[in-house]
Design brief:
This protein is mostly helical. It folds into three domains: about 1-30; about 35-70, no CATH class; about 75-125, no CATH class. It has six helices and two strands, in the order αββααααα. Strands 1-2 form a two-stranded antiparallel sheet. Helix 2 runs antiparallel to helix 6. The chain is flat and about 75 Å long. The mean pLDDT is about 80. The chain binds zinc ion. Zinc ion (ZN) binds near residues 41, 46, 55, 57 and 58.
């Protein structure tokens, strides 16, 4: 009976510690300048500087400044164009994919299938612009 309060106190202490640890990790992630000036290593997937020519971790040469990590195009206009005029390839003209835009126009959105797939890709942030960069920002 004597040890019961001690065990309770210990577990309370441990849970308080782990809570503190989680919140401190979160605040570190919030303040880390990751989104704009970082990219993922072409080879190992580690987060590295966007202008790094070689990954400091695995040493693999990176696709250079001509292929920045994020597109300057936005999801919201791409989605609206795709939703309203997608069967005419409007969203592809918007992101600079002229060739496949014409193809989508001619086939009326790949008879609806291509159009549907594009909407899903756009909304999930995996649609790529004419430079091959993912469009990840909504506005
Ligand atoms: Zn790497």
């Amino acid at each position: 009976m004597d040890t019961a309060p001690t065990v309770l106190q210990l577990s309370a202490f441990l849970s308080a510690r782990s809570t503190f640890r989680v919140s401190s990790v979160n605040s570190t992630l919030m303040t880390a300048p990751v989104s704009r000036k970082a990219k993922f290593c072409f080879s190992c997937g580690d987060v590295i500087e966007s202008h790094a020519l070689v990954c400091p971790r695995c040493g693999t040469a990176q696709p250079t400044a001509s292929t920045p990590s994020a597109s300057e195009k936005r999801i919201l206009p791409a989605f609206l164009l795709c939703f309203l005029l997608g069967v005419f390839g409007a969203h592809r003209f918007y992101v600079g994919k002229i060739g496949t835009g014409i193809l989508e126009l001619v086939t009326l959105g790949g008879f609806g299938i291509w159009w549907l797939v594009d909407i899903i890709f756009i909304v999930t942030g995996t649609f790529r612009d004419g430079n091959g960069n993912k469009i990840t920002e909504w506005t």
